[in-house]
Amino acid sequence: MKTQPRIKCPECDSAYLKERVAAITGSRKGESFPVDMDALICPKCNFTTVPQKRAAQFALRVANAYRQKHGLLTSLELRDFRSRLGMTQKQFYDFVGVGEASGKRWELGEIQGRAMDRLVRFAVAARGGTKQYSAWGGFEQLQDKMALQIYRKRDSGTAGMPHGPPLTNHTPLDCFMETRILNDNFARTKGNQRCSRTCIEERA
Fold first, then answer.
1. Region for residue 33 given its phi and psi (left: phi exceeds 0; alpha: psi -120 to 50; beta: otherwise)
2. In a domain, 113, yes or no
3. N or C: where does the chain have the smaller number of CB atoms within 10 Å of the terminal CB?
4. Does residue 24 belong to any structural domain of this protein?
5. Cβ-count burial of 36 within 10 angstroms (0-12 exposed, 13-18 middle, 19+ buried)?
6. Is the pTM of this model over 0.90?
7. 3-state SS, residue 132
8. Are 50 and 95 contained in the same domain?
9. Tens of pLDDT, residues 137-155
10. CA nearest to 17, candidates 39, 32, 2
11. CA 89 to CA 78: how far, in whole Å?
């Protein structure tokens, strides 16, 4: 069995670093998060560092700590969602409507944006992959419900539905964007109505 070379403490230069579990603080987006990791610690001055072989694992744990704090899906949850639907990375992210490369980065620790997080949750709920779909609340929750209705109506092709027969190439992102357009048009119409009333009142 190959013996690992000993590393002398770069801080005090008087002892060798020993490997043990410790709470190490990492930062993401200006916030600090302590995570338990296999670390290298100096028994003399308590200098602590992450071994090079654990660097990627450390970055992932810090990223997931940030996600948990802000209510975003962790890397493990993203993989779990894929597993529930029985999809590969390519199949899952093609279905969601985002690039496979982006999905891979999210699962490796890159933090997805809030909108993309909503889209993934919505996509899984649209396929019935989870009953734990939780929207963000307020107007965003209304948007998600509308998008989910649009997706299911398109997917089912139920007679009398406004979107006609099922589309074989539509994705949750298509329905998400359609809902946004509908809401934007609605808001613009309401804004024009308010403007018209204001102008009439001013002229009167």
1. beta
2. yes
3. N
4. yes
5. exposed
6. no
7. coil
8. no
9. 444 454 555 555 545 555 5
10. 39
11. 10
